[in-house]
Structures are given as structure tokens and as C-alpha cells.
Specification:
single chain; about 250 residues; alpha/beta; 10 helices; about 15% strand; globular; 8 strands
């Protein structure tokens, strides 16, 4: 399985930021892992034009479950595809919290993404209160069951485990805590999707940075990372790509 270093720029970046993507490619023209950047939608087509034919894929940060229609401010999976996306992040905790996205909505979006030919990166994660209450495994199992449609396989789906309390905070779970959740995800995917579970990439996300990437990538069932803040500069994201390529 080829591992994946995915960067999520969130609501950050201007056209000037595309220079970071160019620098990343210049430093890593042939990385030993897949590289992906998900910029704001306004930058998608321009980034895709700059990276066409290269080892850097581009993706969206969300899509609507419908193919078109009266949905002001939303974007369809086919629109992302036309702008050059190969992936779309779905069910990020910021979408779940800021926009009230439920597991069922995420599942519908994933189906729409597949229909448009996009790979869905489906995000799961417990809140701090849920972790403190010892509910992490049950929360993740429920989100996984509710958010991933039938038909998921290694070619159309990536799962990202992102503890909400670790996102943008500089805090991360311990190595055994990450390994425990990733093992649960792999096991439950196996029950739902059989052999396909082995080829689905499981990413860890939440305060991944150059200093902790190597240790996280060494954990079982961690097939890459979904990186927020540290994906904004070629220097930091490049260091994470190097760590993953060396794993
Ligand atoms: P972070 O964000 O790396 O800035 O913690 C991760 C994410 O939200 O995907």
C-alpha cells in the first residue's frame, strides 16, 4: 500500500501560497509516498494547473451530497473533480461542529464523491469529553459505521482518525492510544468490507509536525497523516513527507 501525506489548508492561503506547493514539489519531485494538498476551493484550479502531471495531487475540503441545485455556498463533487481534484475530505470535525454534519450526511457525501470519481477521506474523532469519559472506542466505532457507505474499498476511501482535542492544539494522544484506535478501525472495516479493509489507508491527524511524524508513522495501522497547520509551509510538510517516505 502506498502511504499518503495529506495537507488540509482549511480557510488559509492566497494565490501567493501556491509558491509553497511549488517549493514542496521542487524538493520532493518523486516522493516515496502519495502527496496531497487540499487548499481552499478558490485555489483548487490554479493549484491543479501548476501540479498537473506531478506527484502532488489536489483535493477539496468538503462537497455537497447533491449533484447540483439550490444550495447557496455549496460545491458539488463533480465541480471539485472538474477543478482538478482527485480527493475530497469529508466529515472533518470542523464541518461536523461548525455546520452540524451528521454521520448520515457524511455517508451521503462519500457516495456523491465516489460517483464523481473522487477518493473520499472520511474523518472520525472523539471530543476531549468523550475521551475523558472512556468513550473513545465506542464513539469511533459508531462514526465509522455511520459515515462509510457500502462499497468502500482501498481505491475509493481513506479513513482519517483525528481526535478533536488534538487538532490545532499541539497535543497528541500517546502512541498506544493512536495504535488502539487504528486497530479498532482496521478491525471494524474488516468486518464491514472484508479483504478491502487491508488496502484502505488509515491516516492519523491532529498536531502532526516534523518533530512527531516519525514516531507516529512507525505505529501499526498508520498509513499516513492528515496535516493541518504544518501543511501550510513546504518546509514543514516536506519534512513530514520525508518521514513518511522513509517509513
Ligand atoms: P492540525 O490539523 O494538524 O493543525 O492539528 C489537523 C486537521 O484538522 O486535519
Amino acid at each position: 500500500m502506498r502511504k499518503l501525506a495529506a495537507g488540509n489548508w482549511k480557510m488559509n492561503g492566497t494565490f501567493a501560497s501556491l509558491a509553497e506547493a511549488e517549493a514542496l514539489l521542487a524538493d520532493h519531485p518523486a516522493p516515496g509516498c502519495d502527496m496531497l494538498l487540499c487548499p481552499p476551493t478558490t485555489l483548487l484550479a490554479a493549484l491543479s494547473a501548476k501540479t498537473r502531471g506531478s506527484q502532488l495531487a489536489v483535493g477539496g475540503q468538503d462537497c455537497h451530497s447533491a449533484t447540483s441545485g439550490a444550495h447557496t455556498g455549496d460545491i458539488s463533487a463533480a465541480m471539485l473533480k472538474e477543478a482538478g481534484a482527485d480527493y475530497v475530505i469529508l466529515g472533518h470535525s470542523e464541518r461536523r461542529n461548525d455546520h452540524g454534519e451528521s454521520d448520515a450526511m457524511v455517508k451521503a457525501k462519500a457516495t456523491a464523491a465516489w460517483q464523481a470519481g473522487l477518493i473520499a477521506i472520511i474523518c472520525l474523532g472523539e471530543s476531549e469529553a468523550q475521551r475523558d469519559a472512556g468513550q473513545t472506542l465506542e464513539v469511533i466505532a459508531e462514526q465509522l459505521a455511520g459515515s462509510v457507505p457500502q462499497g468502500a474499498n482501498g481505491a475509493n476511501t481513506v479513513i482519517a482518525y483525528e481526535p478533536v482535542w488534538a487538532i490545532g492544539t499541539g497535543r497528541t494522544p500517546t502512541d498506544p492510544e493512536i495504535a488502539e484506535v487504528h486497530a479498532l478501525i482496521r478491525r471494524n472495516l474488516g468486518r464491514a468490507f472484508g479483504d478491502q479493509a487491508q488496502s484502505m489507508r488509515l491516516l492519523y491527524g491532529g498536531s502532526v509536525k516534523p518533530s512527531n511524524a516519525k514516531a507516529i508513522f512507525a505505529l501499526p495501522n498508520v498509513d499516513g497523516a492528515l496535516v493541518g497547520g504544518a501543511s501550510l509551509t513546504a518546509k514543514d510538510f516536506g519534512a513530514i513527507v520525508s518521514a513518511l517516505s522513509a517509513t
